[in-house]
Amino acid sequence: MPRTPIEPRFTVEYLSILDSDGNLDASLEPDIPPETLKALWRAMVLGRRLDERMLRLQRQGRIGTFAPIKGQEASQLGSVATLRPGDWMVPSFRETAAMVWRGWPIEKLLLFFAGFLEGGAPAPDQHDLPICIPVATQLPHAVGLAYAAQYRGDDAVVMAFFGDGATSEGDFHEAMNFAGVWHVPVVFVCQNNQWAISVPLKKQTHSRTLAQKALAYGIPGIQVDGNDLLAVYAASREAVDRARGGGGPTLIECVTYRLAMHTTADDPTRYRSEEEVREWERKDPLTRFRLYLEKKGLLEEGLEQRVDEEIAEAVRRFEALALADPLAMFDHVYGEPPVHLQEQRADLAARLEAASGGAAAPVGEPPSATPMRGQRVPRR
Amino acid sequence: MPRTPIEPRFTVEYLSILDSDGNLDASLEPDIPPETLKALWRAMVLGRRLDERMLRLQRQGRIGTFAPIKGQEASQLGSVATLRPGDWMVPSFRETAAMVWRGWPIEKLLLFFAGFLEGGAPAPDQHDLPICIPVATQLPHAVGLAYAAQYRGDDAVVMAFFGDGATSEGDFHEAMNFAGVWHVPVVFVCQNNQWAISVPLKKQTHSRTLAQKALAYGIPGIQVDGNDLLAVYAASREAVDRARGGGGPTLIECVTYRLAMHTTADDPTRYRSEEEVREWERKDPLTRFRLYLEKKGLLEEGLEQRVDEEIAEAVRRFEALALADPLAMFDHVYGEPPVHLQEQRADLAARLEAASGGAAAPVGEPPSATPMRGQRVPRR
Amino acid sequence: MKLDMVKALNLALREEMERDRDVIIIGEDVGVDGGVFRVTDDLQRIFGSQRVIDSPLAEAAIIGTSVGMALYGLKPVCEIQFSGFAFQCFHQIENHAARYRSRTRSRFHCQMVIRMPYGGGVRALEHHTESEEQFYAHIPGLKMVVPSGPRTARALLASAIRDPDPVIFFEAKALYHAAREEVPEESETLPIGRASVVREGGDLTLIAYGAMLRVAREAADVLAAEDGAQCEVIDLLTVSPLDRETLVRSVQKTGRAVVVHEAPRSFGPGAEVAASIMEGAFLSLEAPVRRVASYDVSFVGFARERANVPDVARVVAAARETLAF
Amino acid sequence: MKLDMVKALNLALREEMERDRDVIIIGEDVGVDGGVFRVTDDLQRIFGSQRVIDSPLAEAAIIGTSVGMALYGLKPVCEIQFSGFAFQCFHQIENHAARYRSRTRSRFHCQMVIRMPYGGGVRALEHHTESEEQFYAHIPGLKMVVPSGPRTARALLASAIRDPDPVIFFEAKALYHAAREEVPEESETLPIGRASVVREGGDLTLIAYGAMLRVAREAADVLAAEDGAQCEVIDLLTVSPLDRETLVRSVQKTGRAVVVHEAPRSFGPGAEVAASIMEGAFLSLEAPVRRVASYDVSFVGFARERANVPDVARVVAAARETLAF
Ligand SMILES: Cc1ncc(C[n+]2csc(CCOP(=O)(O)OP(=O)(O)O)c2C)c(N)n1
Ligand SMILES: Cc1ncc(C[n+]2csc(CCOP(=O)(O)OP(=O)(O)O)c2C)c(N)n1
Ligand SMILES: [Mg+2]
Ligand SMILES: [Mg+2]
């Protein structure tokens, strides 16, 4: 009857396979086909270079605000690479590399960040949700997709991405709890990049790890070195297979770091030190994975150039896209446009008519664009 | 570098001191002054009898829907008894016994359940929040109170009550997380009465205990036998003292049972078995505590009668209260009534004038009262 | 058959679930318990606990997971136990249910219904008596439907479930058991977005919906009997998109209008009705459109509810002022 | 001194925090970072991290804990990073911040301000450009304030912080750096609930607030120059409680009115303005009150924003139709 610890005790594991110096724990090395390893390396490089290119496009005012991924390539790719095409990916707003891996055309992403809804539409056959801006709100959607898949008897698995800050939102909690109760095939991938804009992890939660939050829902949680693609892949493989096998949800915490600014509207020097950033640059996920492939003799000549050319072509296609018709804003509000929207559409059509040069006039960026923080006011 | 459990492991304890047969673990017996023990017994009896009386009042249509506490007396009183008057109690909607302990006049509670806002106003010197209907929404208020107390340098502790179902709400999660980060003096008392209306705990969450949810926030969590007043008291004492001493928040899970219906509008026979209820009746918190006091020779003669008389007097005072002026609905919407409310007040005043018999006419319960489930339509 | 509104809603749910395996129900206590008001009574027994889901206590996740199910192709019918608790999921409704179609250019859309009991009349506690339709009516991408009795409830719920867009479906608690009405054997639908003229008249247009329709009708009887004034009574049925055409046509005939709702007056649905009538029938208007609504106060307690919610006397008074204007 | 709106707001916060130790700031990134738009710049350094709180990422808890602080006697000024994310805390605002006073018969009340940047003009992503004022204007117990420039921003924020009731304080992103304006050395206030006639005229009343005031003013210039029409321009400043008296007095003089807002048109704030004018000035009205608002569409993407948000040409066109009616 006395005061007794509840048994079994609760444990959470930490997984690291390839350390920042490239040392490999061969006993844990996941068996990934050479072609996949090469594709993953290519995706990492593309993610890194696309980030840099998008930064330039934003500074030139050719696209608007976006969230760079630099430093988080391994977290995103090691996890998403374990999905099948028929599985579902549910991104937040910082998964460019994962989205490209899943088949999002680069020009479509650029269109999205240039302020066109057309950039947010997944392809008809694509099992991915679009970018989700409100933090953590996509997580219940992932659980609902997983429930629906289970209900229909499909063997699809759902993988949802979110950040460390997202774990503070009620939607994170409610989604995890529903997933636990429903025992649905969903894998929660938390990219713990140490910061939520200017808020460091220790101000975000008092728990030692984010992985341990899984204990609150009676589901497995694991913390992995998020800059170690092999560890992320191994943990994700295990979670995805368990989910597909009817083993229910898993929470994976990828310990990583956002090496660039939160978004192009952010100035990280206000809240974090250069030392901290340099510290993490030494743990760059690309460096160690490059070494790993080098040892395996899987590095290709001129990859960077080919990737840059692919990006350049995508940018050209993006630039070539004519400004879409403003009237399109009335499409897709409802299945069938109600009377009042037909009238409003006619109103805009008339205004566009009136404004000589038709569409041109009232379109384009708003007259008085206020920069967020240091952001320059872009002009197309 | 390999796969390693994160140390130290996570543990949650279970505490029971006085079992359902009245066996005492003397090594853990909290030292409670005899006068307090007697007061607690009196409060338990009053809670039980008031519940029964309110049920009759509701059936007679003299009050509206309310939530009986039968079976949860120990959870409420063992915890709230560890507070000082200057501390804060933040109730949900099922803390009648705790509220009376804190000094709420019974007639005021009756007024509240009879549909009068006047019943919801704490006394000027009372450090308690009113009954809160939306599940879990009071928890961030408790954290805010605790923050404010700390900010002002007051040594007040805040104790918040909620149920097992409340742990599924986002507000529970966000409040716990803020409390952990801010390290504020708040004690979260979860009355796990096994049911959220018709939803059993196993459909509410997949975690083995509710206490373990504390691990997600890096704060202490403990599970206690909620029908054992001594265990609830001991755990609460420890948590309140820790909070007051700057040790931060604690989550206490009181494992108890709702012996009556969810509210007077509920029919529990639809979702749970008689056996289950009888099972828990054997663990009645009053029975064992009565035995405990008996052995200590602390039982008073004729307590039940005195308690019943006190309740009867309160009911008489409640019945004697004239129906308040309908115009009072315009008071306290804002600090100063804006023009439009002054006009609307005048409109109602004129209508009341017109309706011969002044106030009487448009007041009282709505014309077509729809019973919720089995509830009878009450008439005053 | 003659059914009350609870039974009529229950029938519509059963019929739609039989019609379409993708229709599922989710909410708090909707399963074993059959819902707080028994609207989902017996459905879990018939269709199983995978299709009638007793969810944990979390509104945002009820709507959020339903959005996910809808994106997959299911057609969830969610129950929020009382409309007063829907603000917990308001972000999921506004950010997502209403927007996925536009956001993805119809690659995805949310065919889902969100049912909620609303309004007064049941001697209930705070958050159990309010009328929040305005909050949903202002959100593009949503439809806001409020039946006024058993037959319209059953038909509109069927329409809502088959509608490709997210529909907020408000059920007046006061009507659940208020009256039994003849409903046809065969399942029927009603067009969403169309108001209905339930009484013809040339002197004044009375506009209401939900539980207030009865009040408007009775006011029309009084005005006919005592004032010899013929009111045209319009049952909105759909608050949004608002059927402005039917409103304007009526007021072009009557020249006078009074709109009645349980929601607080200021910035409420009556304002849109009044403004739309002014825009569409200005030259026919012989008096300002009057609004009879609850006062701009928060919860008043059921002991004072009757003094706050519009009743026949108030509607009659407003109509007389309008007729005398 | 000449300040832009960000600096003016920052000044008001500093002044009120110096005046009253109970005033504290809480929100995401309001501390070290000084807020997404730098409105709280430097305040954490001056007043410390106990008074300027960098909260975890959870809007419901930001408002919920602030409610608790207010019940204790503090005066929290909460920042919701963008108004599009305030639906996460809508239940805490509607269920509690707006109601504690009434619920406890003033034993407790919530003296708190909830600041949010709203509206378009910054080439931002979804949920960063919308205008949600209507949702707050309909809630009894709340006040809804929207300054139109640096000077009104500084004065109204001071008034809001000193106001005993919860105030929703909308800051137009488009105005943050749009213009610098002379503000007095001394702290000043403006009465909440009072609109301001910023330009006198006898031909037509133009009603706007926030970023739309500039649009209305420029439209007035165009109408004066090109049509010789004198517009009276009213800056609402407070959306709710609405200053009907000022609106009605003006329209009794002009007989014509156009209301402009960024929020979607249907069931929006313009409906209340129009309905109130009709009720108060019906016999003076020579034309229906026209509404110029964003269309009833959800987020359109910043590339199309200009086609959706009211601009000078649209206001001028509506005014001309009204004048010609
Ligand atoms: C509900 C909500 N609140 C606030 C924001 C503004 N915001 C955008 S990203 C962000 C920080 C997110 O941090 P984290 O979850 O760690 O993801 P990260 O940005 O680091 O990838 C905030 C506060 C938002 N988008 N949604
Ligand atoms: C936000 C919210 N959702 C739904 C309800 C309706 N409701 C009232 S009590 C209750 C169950 C609460 O269960 P629990 O938290 O275990 O407390 P208990 O009633 O068992 O004491 C529900 C669903 C509510 N009051 N608030
Ligand atoms: Mg982060
Ligand atoms: Mg319970």
What would your notes on this structure say?
The complex is a heterotetramer, with two copies of chain A (380 residues) and two copies of chain C (325 residues). With 380 residues, chain A is of the alpha/beta class. Chain A is 39% helix and 9% strand. Chain A is built from twelve helices and nine strands. Chain A has a six-stranded parallel β-sheet with strand order 2-8-9-5-4-3, sandwiched between helices. A two-stranded antiparallel sheet of chain A has the order 6-7. In chain A, a hairpin with a 2-residue loop joins strand 6 (195-196) and strand 7 (199-200). In chain A, helix 1 packs across helix 2, helix 1 crosses helix 11 and helix 5 (138-152) runs parallel beside helix 6. Chain A is globular and about 80 Å long. With 325 residues, chain C is α/β, with parallel strands linked by helices. Chain C is 37% helix and 19% strand. Chain C is built from twelve helices and 14 strands. In chain C, the strands form three sheets. Chain C has a seven-stranded mixed β-sheet, sandwiched between helices. In chain C, helix 10 links the parallel strand 13 and strand 14. Chains A and B meet through strand 1, strand 2 and helix 6 of A and strand 1, strand 2 and helix 6 of B. The structure holds thiamine diphosphate (2 copies) and magnesium ion (2 copies).
Task: Note the main attributes of this structure.
heterotetramer, A: 380 residues, alpha/beta, two-stranded antiparallel sheet, 39% helix, 9% strand, globular, disordered C terminus, C: 325 residues, seven-stranded mixed β-sheet, five-stranded mixed β-sheet, binds thiamine diphosphate, binds magnesium ion
- Oligomer state of the chains in this structure: heterotetramer
Low-confidence stretches of chain A: 358-380
Strand content of chain C: 15-25%
- Ligand names: thiamine diphosphate, magnesium ion
The DSSP helix count of chain C reads 12
Instruction: Give the integer mean of the pLDDT values of chain C.
Output: 98
First and last CA, distance of chain C = 45 Å
Order of helices and strands of chain A: EEHHEHHHEHEEEHEHEHHHH
